[in-house]
Amino acid sequence: MAERITMTIQKNLLEDLEECIKESNKSRSEIIREALIDYIKKYEWLHQIGSRAGEITLIYPLNVHKKVLDIENRYRNIILTSVSYMVNNEFLRVIVLKGPKEDIIKLTENLKSINDIKYAKLSTVGFENKK
């Protein structure tokens, strides 16, 4: 049974959603439903395995670069390397990491909480701890 919800999103996100609707010939509800399903599956999968390796991709303007570096510095124990490239006056940053899922989740959430972060995506792979 379907439930009706109301949500508030940023104008630019709504504009991007409308563009997806035009290109995909899907309804707004279909696109949001698919995104929620993907998010929930990723969330469930992320919480099943204890140790992970992966990367976080960020896009952000220059004014938040110091905040990104400050947060990264607090998680040096799980960051293997990171690299930034300037593209169209914005940073594209890739952070490669390995460690306990809890730390990876906290790092990702801290980075996503920075105002003006335009894109933040975590991709991970799980692995079993060998004793």
What does the model show?
By secondary structure, the chain is α+β, with helices and mostly antiparallel strands. The chain folds into 2 domains: 11-45; 51-127, ACT-like. Chain A, domain 2 (Alpha-Beta Plaits). 42% of the residues lie in helices and 31% in strands. It has a 4-stranded antiparallel β-sheet, covered by helices on one side. The protein is globular. It starts with 10 loop residues before the first helix and ends with a strand.
Helix/strand order: HHEHEEHE
User: How many structural units, i.e. domains?
Assistant: 2
CATH topology tier name of the largest domain: Alpha-Beta Plaits
Which stretches of 5+ consecutive residues score pLDDT under 50? none
State the end-to-end CA separation: 46 Å
Classified by CATH, the class of the largest domain is Alpha Beta
Overall shape: it is: globular
Class derived from helix and strand content: alpha+beta
